[in-house]
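User: Fold this; tokens only.

Assistant: Input:
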Amino acid sequence: MKSRLLIWLAAFALLVLIVVQVIFIRDTYQTRQQQFDTRFGNLVKEGMVAFNSLDYNYAFDSVLYLLDHMAVDFLFSDPDTLQTTPAEEYYKVLNEYREPASFLKQYIRRAGEEPVFSYHIRINELYLTDMGFQQDVYPDSLQLPHVPANALLAGTYAFDRNFFRITFDVLIDFKNRSEMILKEMWLILALAVLTLLFIFTVYYLTLRNMLVQKRLSDMKSDFINNMTHELKTPLSTIAVASSSLGDRTIIQQEKKVEELSMMIKKQNRHLSQLIDRILDINIWERDQVRLERTRVETEKWIRELVEAFQMEQGSAAPRIDLKFDLREETFSLDEVHMSTVISNLLSNAVKYGNQPCRIGLDVSGSDQELKITVSDNGPGIRREEQKHLFEKFFRGEVSRKRVIKGLGLGLYYVKQIVEAHRGTISVRSSPGKGTTFHIIIPAENGTIAS
């Protein structure tokens, strides 16, 4: 409960940190936007002032002369014959006059910036005039093209000519505005991203370690409980049998004494096997075991192994379907350890298989590799459990629900032996469809093809 609370508190703190970072970056971006608008707004205004100080042939005067002639044409034309309004024509002429845009580009470059912008005109008022007569042309119901929202005002101009009066704004929209702002903020953004990545990594590693520690703790507890149970059962049996042998009435019965002696021997052997299993794991982990590979008659070895296993199971012996496809009669392996591998897999198939238990054992091989496949008709293994199947002390949900005896060491031991032969072991299973284990052992001087 405490660990879970710490995880949630850490996640909440991380979320708060992300929100704070986002707000900080947003506020910084908005501040830089204001600074950008102030700086470049002043720059384009200064540029337009410089442009207006130029001679007649270069400044707006040359365009105003043309607009005066257009005003005369509009004043003395039949309105019904006009295809466009005066406001549209004036907007078109003013917008196509690009001398101010070219001048501003050079002016901003001289200030040390590389501008990428679009030039816009916004007409505020337009009147046609003639000797005291004044015709209101714009604004009216006609909508001229809109100016981008982020465009900066470069100047407002009002001209009262012979035949028209106009007021309009010159605006500059920097297309690379966001790019320029982010370029200035790159250090802040990089530090923010690196900080978040670092915190995310620390949080992920901490959380993963906590979960691993919790799983190991649970597996350790399961192992201790299982070990206690496994040791307690034979010890209790030995204790009861030993007490019975102390009874004079039982001592006089040879058959009863023999049965009790056999029971003590059997339970003693079971205890030895448990202890040996744990010691074997310890030896494997210290890398103190060396394989003794010899040429083994594969089919004969498997058949004898299966026969011995079925005899050991007695009346509960499962049906085992054998299939052989061997190109070589013998193969180099450690017979003792590999016998343990096969016995473990067969034993698991009996433990977890459905009744009646049915096992498939397929063996195929060549001079390059030996393949062994063991399949059963059990309930199958969930996908999320399969990746932990060969871990030490791991026991699946079926083992716990059905209270199946075991220490969670069998498949771990199997994997160690197979890998000591430079081989591989894999599992294929799905709930309700049984489980299949695939073992590939390469020849002593060979490698498994990837």
